[in-house]
Structure formats: structure tokens, C-alpha cells
Amino acid sequence: MSLPVLVGISGASGAIYGVECLRMLNEMKIPVQLIVSELGVQTLAIELDMTVNDLRQYAEDVHSNKDLAAAVASGSYRTRGMIVAPCSIKTLSGIANSYSGNLLIRAADVMLKERRPLVLMIRETPLHKGHLELMTKAADLGAVIHPPMPAFYNKPTTIDEIVRHNVGRALDQLGIEHDLISRWPG
């Protein structure tokens, strides 16, 4: 059996990135463990008219963000890595400062201490120096800073195509082989 990918959805705008990540992993039949922060629950409702229950179909387990005793809070629970999509600055701050006050941040901290891939799809703009310093600190700890930036060489015609391409590139950072996006042909 394939190791699961841990997906975290924080409260930043861009909940569609987390949902599309779940959908793509599901297409590839890769197991998923899901954590949605409390503000992530609100953002899902505001932006997509979705609830966490709508996402259960894509995950083996959906963990409460308050459950610091969940299996994914331990380094002995093996995963392929973790994507936080979207990653709020609040979540980034917790990760960069090793402040594991909730399960999403604790699971990200586990990825760093176990040297597993951690991809942070930072969603904030404009950025001030404090945000940039947090990103640098997280990168120095081993996280991949992967803000969703649209690529236009694939000539996207819909927002869904832009989102899917960004998520596909994030999955690349976990070393997951796929052909779900258009690649630069050269």
C-alpha cells in the first residue's frame, strides 16, 4: 500500500487549492489524511459553499485540528509528505517558529523534523518583510515555499486550469509522478 499524503487546509483565501489537491490525489488513488483548520472550515464555506463533510470522500481520515494525539502528530506515522494548501501567514508563522498549537502545525513540524517534504502554498499579498522572513525561516528548516503563481505557457482558459496546474506543480515537490498537467514542451 502506498504511503499517504497529508493535506492541510488553513484559513487563507484559496481553499480551492486544497480541494483540487484532494481531487488530484484521489484521481491517482493516493491515500490522503486531511486536516482543516477552524478558519479553513469558514473559508471553504465562504469561497466554495463546501463543508468538511463534502471533503470526506477524498480522504481516508479527516482529523480535528484540535486532536494533537492524532496519529499524524507523530513521526512514527509514515507519510510521503504534506501540502498545506492554502497556507495562511498565521499557519506559516506557527510552522516557522515551531509553535505546534494545533494539529495542522504539529503535523507540518513533524514533516520538518523527520525530513519529509513539506510544501506550503502561501496565500497572501502584498507581503511585508515579516512575511518574507517567515518564509525564509521555514525554507531554512526544509519547507518548500510554493505560492500559487499562474503559468501561462500552457494557455489556460479557466481558473480551474490555473488551479490544477499549480497543484500539479506542488505534487511534483512531493516526488509524485503524474501526467495531470501540461508541462513546458521546450
SSE topology sketch:
Elements (H helix, E strand, L loop, with lengths): L4 E5 L5 H13 L4 E5 L1 H11 L3 H4 L5 E3 L17 E7 L1 H8 L6 H11 L4 E5 L6 H13 L2 E2 L13 H14 L14
Parallel strand pairs: 1-2, 1-4, 2-3, 4-5, 5-6
Short description:
With about 190 residues, the chain is α/β, with parallel strands linked by helices.
What are the key terms here?
six-stranded parallel beta sheet, alpha/beta, 186 residues, single chain
Name the shape in a single word: globular
Largest sheet report: 6 strands, parallel
Secondary-structure element series: EHEHHEEHHEHEH
Strand tally: 6
Distance between the termini: 36 Å
The computed structural class is alpha/beta
Estimate the strand proportion: 5-15%
What's the mean pLDDT score? 97
* Cα Rg: 15 Å
Number of H- or I-type helical stretches: 7
Helix % is 25-40%
Poorly predicted regions = none
Strand adjacency order, main sheet:
3-2-1-4-5-6
Oligomer: single chain
Descriptive notes:
There is one protein chain. The protein has 186 residues and is α/β, with parallel strands linked by helices. Helices cover 40% and strands 15% of the residues. It is built from seven helices and six strands, in the order βαβααββααβαβα. It has helices spanning 15-27, 38-48, 52-55, 89-96, 103-113, 129-141, 159-172; strands at residues 5-9, 32-36, 61-63, 81-87, 118-122, 144-145. It has a six-stranded parallel β-sheet, sandwiched between helices. The longest helix is centred in the C-terminal third of the chain and has 14 residues, at 159-172. The chain is globular, with a radius of gyration of 15 Å. The model has no long low-confidence stretch (mean pLDDT 97).
